[in-house]
Design brief:
Elements lengths: L6 H10 L2 H25 L2 E3 L17 H4 L5 E6 L4 H16 L2 E8 L13 H17 L4 E7 L8 H14 L3 E5 L7 E3 H14 L7 E5 L6 E4 L4 H9 L2 H4 L5 H18 L4 E8 L2
Parallel strand pairs: 2-3, 2-5, 3-4, 5-7
Antiparallel strand pairs: 1-6, 7-9, 8-9
The chain binds zinc ion.
Length: about 280
């Protein structure tokens, strides 16, 4: 702020200020700040769906032959991005499937190493080791096999290499049902690896004739819901296996997010808790 003086002094100071230079400097500072924010947004892996696609219309409920799905020996493959995704999004459904006698394969695209953080903030090799073990331990609860594709956490691409790796695992396992993320209808805030793993799975499915149904989770356009009310307490137990993510216990914020999602899905079919899917018949 200019010091008050007499009128002649004030006008002299004002004349000395180069207003156009000052404006230019301001514009540069603003542009640098905006660029920095854009850079930060693309550096970190969370993505905001700024223009969410509205739910398909009409969008009738679909039954992916659920009697068959929950019957002994049915082969179900889950494609996920990070260790803890299956428990976070599907803990109830996978518990019900394993109790019904399904054979489950989990294809895990990354090891959840958080290697995109600067090295002083994380030990990627240790994260990789711990998180793989946690996912293997959680999968044992469903008697599921886990295959890791070891793609970089936070930087997953839906490129030919990843598509081919997923296709290879699906062809070897011959599932009838594939559960994957839903890139066209994601929640408002979504990890980019989730989107990429869903895209890669959809591309891989074009040449997997064993697959009859694709069931997309983490979707805002569900047309089928699995009632998980009976196994709800198991979901928290399963998440606790991922100690590195939830420091031994899922935080109350994480649990309230999971709970309100499950309650909203439950409301759709008149039960207490459910997990929603956008299902499409392929075969
Ligand atoms: Zn994830």
């Amino acid at each position: 702020m200019l010091a008050r003086g007499n009128d002649c002094e004030d006008s002299l100071v004002l004349e000395l200020v180069d207003w156009s230079e000052l404006l230019k400097l301001g514009a540069w500072v603003f542009a640098a700040g905006a660029l920095g924010l854009v850079g930060l947004y693309f550096y970190q892996p969370q993505r905001i769906d700024f223009f969410p696609k509205s739910t398909p219309d009409p969008h009738p409920p679909v039954d992916p032959d659920s009697e068959h799905l929950f019957s002994p020996g049915i082969r179900v493959a889950v494609v996920a991005a990070h260790p803890d995704d299956p428990e976070f999004y599907l803990g109830g459904t996978l518990t019900e499937l394993s109790r019904a006698g399904a054979k489950i394969l989990i294809v895990m695209c990354t090891d959840g190493d958080k290697g995109y953080y600067p090295r002083f903030m994380t030990d990627a090799a240790e994260n990789r080791r711990v998180r793989q073990l946690e996912q293997i331990e959680a999968a044992a609860e469903y008697s599921a096999e886990v295959v890791f594709l070891h793609e970089p956490d936070g930087r997953l691409k839906s490129d030919a290499k990843v598509i081919e790796a997923i296709r290879h695992e699906l062809e070897a396992f011959q599932p009838e049902y594939v559960l994957c993320f839903d890139p066209p209808y994601p929640p408002r805030l979504q990890h980019s690896d989730h989107l990429r793993s869903g895209e890669a799975t959809e591309a891989a499915l074009t040449s997997c004739p064993s697959v009859k149904w694709v069931m997309r989770y983490s979707t805002h356009a569900a047309n089928y819901f699995v009632d998980i009310s009976k196994v709800w307490p198991r979901k928290a137990e399963l998440l606790k296996i991922h100690k590195s993510q939830f420091t031994g216990e899922p935080s109350s914020m994480v649990m309230s997010i999971i709970r309100s999602r499950a309650e909203a899905d439950g409301k759709a079919i008149g039960v207490q808790f459910a997990e929603g899917f956008r299902c499409t018949r392929l075969g």
